[in-house]
Amino acid sequence: MKRALPPLNAIRAFEAAARHESFTRAAEELGMTQAAVSYQIKLLEERLGAALFRRLPRRVELSAEGRRALPLVTEAFDTLAEAFSTVLDERNPVLSITTLQTLAVRWLVPRLGAFQLAHPEIAVRLDASNRLLDFDRDDIDVAIRSGSGEWPGTVAHRLFPIDFTVAVSPALLARHGPLESPADVLRLPLVSPTDPWWRLWFAAAGLPDAETDGRRALSLGVQQLDATAVLAGAGAGLLSPLYFREELRDGRLVQPFPIVALEPNRFYWLVYPKARRNAPKVRAFRDWVLAQIGESEAERNTVPTIYPQ
After folding, report:
1. What GO annotations for molecular function exist for this entry (predicted)?
2. What pLDDT shows up at residue 82?
3. CB-based contacts of 223: which residues, under 8 Å, 6+ apart?
């Protein structure tokens, strides 16, 4: 059956211009001139007999007809992208993952061997960094990131909350004496004292006015590095109990108070483009990660909370 479709170039120009709300940025993305994008959209409008954009001084915005058309056009492009990505997956069975450094070292990497045993046909390439990558620009299949979970054009599965507690080393306690109340933490050297998590933890401990800024101390910016400094006795630090449960369990780290604070409205998420949601290697990793989360939630309840006197 012959399909009475408008020219594909005109549809591509419309979708890019609508997404960017700019003919100029659409032209940059498509490798065309701004005049060529404008011409393609004009052809499409003439074909449809309706204006898809309102031309305003220095900008454009979708008309009512354009707003109705955009979701359907976007879905069609996602379906096309998904169809071709499935073909590419069969030729390139490498799963590219990006995630945060501490999450990679402390949670994901120790489990990846089990994933590859379950899926020997899939190779894994891991980017462990805190820099944000772009699915459209970078060769990445899935990401594990922190945030609100609202990233346009993606599917996001909530994994676990961003929680943290004060941890110290036995050597630090030996030097500074036992901690009787959360206020005693303020007399210790702190690792990364400008971290906003400190304010949240002290508020959860009933000390909303506690001040940690202005101290001369180590500011490392990565939880894995903070933990190394805490283990060495450099000071008290804020760590996620799930990542360091073995050190807490065997006494290398001590959690002096059973206070675990949460970063409000933020979680760790498994994220991938909607166009990739049915790619076999993405589906396999998604199902495996979500199964791991159930096990991790059970592990949270095995971490001791009070240090021995």
Report:
1. DNA-binding transcription factor activity; sequence-specific DNA binding
2. 67
3. 102, 239, 240, 243
